[in-house]
Amino acid sequence: MLHTIRTRPDLPSATNEPTELLLACHGRLRHFSELSRALATRDDVEDAQIVDAAHRLVRYFRVALPLHEEDEERSLAPSLLARATAEQADAMERMRDQHGLLHEVLAELFPLWETVEAEPRTLERKAARPHALRLATVLDVHLELEETLIFPMAAALPAGERKRLAEEMRARRSPEVFSEMRRIAT
């Protein structure tokens, strides 16, 4: 059954550390990447589970991913670029490029997910599989880049700036968005 792959990703707590908020998002990204892979590869899934998974995938990647990218590109990157070495600035440019790759693969997956959300028996695992596997690969590379090169830079920012960044990130999310993300992430 599809629910056996759920990992119950943590939702962000009240923290003044932007990297903690971003790492919580990374946990959810890994969770939804695994859900996409499972939907595309497992054939022991009931129709109701297919509909549920497709709905959650569409909502997460259409609503939460853009907010996460804004956190990184509009909040974190400008603060870090002011202090970045050439190698660090290159890492942030690669981060932006990888966001583009994510959108390319999601552009292939959204129509598949939206179709099966409406009619689960139309799931074409053979068509979805390469895109789901590419999503997992792109996310793995992307998250590793951020976690090993970019987030350590953020940890070195002054406490007041880290607090401001965390508040800015939280401000992007309305209570309704938090509520919806809590529903689809569990």
Which residues sit in consecutive blocks of at least 5 with pLDDT less than 50?
Answer: 1-12
Tally the helices.
6
Please state the CA-atom Rg, rounded to the nearest Å: 17 Å
**Percent helix:** over 70%
For the termini, the CA-CA separation is 15 Å
Oligomeric nature of the chains: single chain
Q: How would you state the average pLDDT, rounded?
A: 90
Biggest β-sheet description: none
* N to C succession of SSEs: HHHHHH
Task: Tell me the strand percentage band.
Answer: under 5%
Shape: globular
The number of distinct β-strands equals 0
Content-based structural category: mainly alpha
Features:
single chain, 186 residues, mainly alpha, 6 helices, 79% helix
